Amino acid sequence: MGNTTSSAISKEILEDLKLSTKFTENEICQWYENFQKQCPTGRITPEEFEEIYTRFFPESDAKSYARHVFRSFDTNDDGTLDFKEYIIALHMTSTGKTTRKLEWAFSLFDVDKNGYINKTEVTEICQAIFKLIPKEEQSKLPEDENTPEKRANKLWAYFEKKDNERLAEGEFIKGVIENENAMRLIHYEPIKQ
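That's the Recoverin 2 sequence above. Prediction below.
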């Protein structure tokens, strides 16, 4: 094997990532180099991921949100992210409102990974999202979404489900695509200064 192979990214993963993300070959190789430096083991732990994520949200508490994001990308449930899972995470959380992104959003909200979302789960993620919003921005939120509970209620209402009903992935995606507001409520976009 020799030492060279460990520092270069495999062709297979490179091709795969070029297809499934909008990143260029150069970008992916650059990410990979950084990844190797930061994570010599080739794996990211939840703690390391939290640290990376917190840098994007210096003004707020990103910990619980980062945990949920981590869970949703740890597709093989081994408690770590490998390079591929990590790049897909970066891609999904940074690009437009594609169906792929909504599929990811669904898995973010599906806290217990049972294939359905219920209102409790929506509330839990809304609480995590809320912590991402800097305090002074929270105070400017509309009256009907200025607490995590209100945000969850407002979002849940778009799906036309009772509080004790559950939501399948297709229904979730359809509900969000049809409601500009729901799209806004399922994540937090920092206000561009």
